[in-house]
Amino acid sequence: QTCALPILFVLFSDVKEPVVAVIDTKVTENSTNIIGNVSMLGEDTKGTNQHGNKMVSKILETNPNAKILAIEAISDNGTGTLSSVYSAIEYAIAQKVNVINLSIAAKDTESDEIFKEVIQKAVDAGITVVGAAGNNASDVKDFVPGNIDNALIVNSCNEDGKRLTDSNYGSTVDYSIKSETTSYAAAIASGLISKNGELIVDNETVFSPDYSSEEEQVKAENKSENATEEKENTAADNTGNKLTLTKENKTNTSEFADDTKTNKEVVIKYLFVDPSKMTKGETIDDLWASEEAIT
């Protein structure tokens, strides 16, 4: 794990370009654009899943000057817990990033309320939270972060702005992005926002969103061209990368909160341990065991 996190505050104070926090699988890319690389999983993962690397590459392809804070919250098997992602968002807020990229999706449940709350906390802090709608060909109202009003939610479409059939749809989708998957759509959106400060519909990469279900699309296609000013979206099938959040078998919010507390301790540990007190051979976990290590 990358441990000397207090140094990040110094780095960020000198960063002129917007910082994008990529909450994903372990990022192993070696790039000067990556100004921080931490883990919320509390274990040394191998980084065999390339999803995080692909999201970083897509962001930098869109904005070569973007700065990346890589936060591992999804394991190598492509799944993660709500508490690990919660902790990652809390950490990104503490680091005062400009954009949080969430190329992930999970079925919405009652326990997800705490996840929605922390996203709202990020938005209230002035951070743009970009979320993938998901690749389930379903109404996004049943998925997080896709159903969160105050996050910027994107789905995927083809070059004509027509939604890919496996992309989720719904009223909380803010934009359609020309991309292979909604994961890539979120990464492209994050890159554009870090570059331009906003998303602008250009009908080349960024399109007005599709709010309709498959049934409504079919009906719309049977109407005359002048019946509507909006494009109705259907598209050829296109599968892609999917990351999910696993449920932690919590029966109520308090049980989930207990688990989240453990993950928040990981955040606190790496925020307030002073790496300058490390001696040769010591790790940040060794320091945590000593009260004098706390700053």
Summarize this structure as a short list of keywords or feature phrases.
295 residues; alpha/beta; 8-stranded mixed sheet; two-stranded parallel sheet; 8 helices; 17% strand; globular; disordered N terminus
Describe what this molecule looks like in 3D:
With 295 residues, the chain is of the alpha/beta class. The chain is built from eight helices and twelve strands. It has helices at residues 6-14, 51-62, 82-94, 113-124, 182-196, 214-221, 253-272, 284-288; strands spanning 19-24, 34-39, 67-72, 79-81, 99-102, 106-107, 128-132, 143-144, 152-157, 173-178, 206-207, 244-246. An eight-stranded mixed sheet has the order 2-3-1-5-7-9-10-11, with helices on both faces. A two-stranded parallel sheet has the order 4-12. α2 links the parallel β2 and β3 (67-72). α2 runs parallel beside α5 and α3 packs parallel to α4 (113-124). The radius of gyration is 20 Å and the shape is globular.
